[in-house]
Amino acid sequence: MLRKQFCVNGEWKDSKTERWMPVSDSSTGEVIAEVPCCTVEEVEEAIASAASAFPAWSQTSISQRTQMMFKWRNILMDHLEELSVLCAKELGKNLSEARGDILKAIEPTELACAAPFITQGSASLQVTTGFDTAAYRMPLGVVAGIVPFNFPAMIPWGWIVPLAVVTGNTVVLKAASYTPLTSMRILELFYHEAGFPKGVVNLVTCSRKESELFLTDPRVKAVTFVGSTEIGKHIYSVAAAHGKRVQAQCEAKNHALVLEDCDLESATNAIINSTYGCAGMRCMALPVVVVQESIADRFVQLLKKKAMALKVGCAYDPETTLGPVVNAEHKKFICDWIQKGVDEGAELVLDGRDLVVPGYENGFFVGPTILDHVKPGMTVGDREIFGPVTIIKRVKTFEEGLAIMNANPFANGSVIFTQSGYYARQFELLTDGGMVGINVGIPVPSAYFPFSGNKDSFFGDLHVLGQDGVRFYTRAKTVTKHWYSEHSHQKTVDTWEGTVERI
């Protein structure tokens, strides 16, 4: 059995732990590696490494950091296919989806290459007579990233590392124990091929118990978390109480509103991609479709037809369109939710629980599943399932549909399918969703804009990516300057020293 190491100061080290966590090939069910549940002392060592690397890295010029990011971007592109296969194997995404995971790590890296522009502050001469003021963006210090299993490249190496590093911070990543291999391989490339200074990024695998140190250690200045709402609330409250900045991206239950005037074929195609892409294991999936009753039967029939046409199979088979879920535990979790939906009174239109893929009988497969006639109060319609399960809620009007959507405690994304400019505009104006799609099934913005969840989907002040991401990983330093002339001593000034003027 391959036992993986953790990385401190650019060196891979054997853990002293007695607890090891399995990593599976999701398509075969085979355990392909074990990763350590690092000890508290080892997590402390990673933090210390980042703290030690910070002074030199933060003083490295923006020009040099930018050049390194350009090099790093090209290295990731060179290893795109290798990383895509590794991601598909440990997670279960098909090759196209896994390739997208890597590309969504590269996209923020390209944004980071604009550091000379995006990190600029502001300045004015002669703000008051003889006084100039400039505001700069300064790095924070050590930042921690606690990441989920479903995007082992995009979240640690897209949402966190590029903007954190290019602004002069150093990083400790807690890789997801289910899917750490992609992130570990990227870190190898980070040091061995890109040549970043040792200690700029460190990586551990551990349990929630050991990672609690990130929330309390005074050397850690900011925490980015992606995961469940329950844990996100805890991280936000504890870390904030210890004076840290927090981004807590949490659960979602995104809804799509399908109106009777929509292009039904195109809308259904978009919903198929969004709902069943990545086997539903993403917070920007569309697990709930709110559809007008006048077209509901036609829509459900068409959705079922297209869902049944998906090729379920090995994640790294190029022909596969729907791969497995991450592991046996998560498969059981999804299947239990499907049964709960049936028990609550939903109509099971399509059942993916007993699907077997020939040659991959031990893989963690769940086929596309549809639950229709889901009513208010059914928990299956309100809680995150994180699998290839579509919930259908039927409504009479736009207003009823919007009210149902906004009643949900989560507000990551929301989508409308319509040809009506009026209803599209009303939806854009009134939906609670932080990321809004109009005839767009997956309204994930590019890295140049913030990933903007609301309500119980996000806790914090500044979102990931875009200018929010730059501001999150930097602090303001405002400098006011005045130069004395040979006559300055002759001037009379008050206790504000001339910084307050009135005519």
From TrEMBL:
Transmembrane segments: none annotated. CDD domains: ALDH_F6_MMSDH. This is Methylmalonate-semialdehyde dehydrogenase (Acylating). It comes from Pusillibacter faecalis. Keywords: Oxidoreductase. GO terms for molecular function: methylmalonate-semialdehyde dehydrogenase (acylating, NAD) activity. It comes from the Bacteria. PANTHER family: MALONATE-SEMIALDEHYDE DEHYDROGENASE. InterPro entries: Ald_DH/histidinol_DH, Ald_DH_C, Ald_DH_N, Aldehyde_DH_dom, MeMal-semiAld_DH. Residues 12-479 form the Aldehyde dehydrogenase domain. NCBIfam families: MMSDH. One of its GO terms (biological process) is L-valine catabolic process.
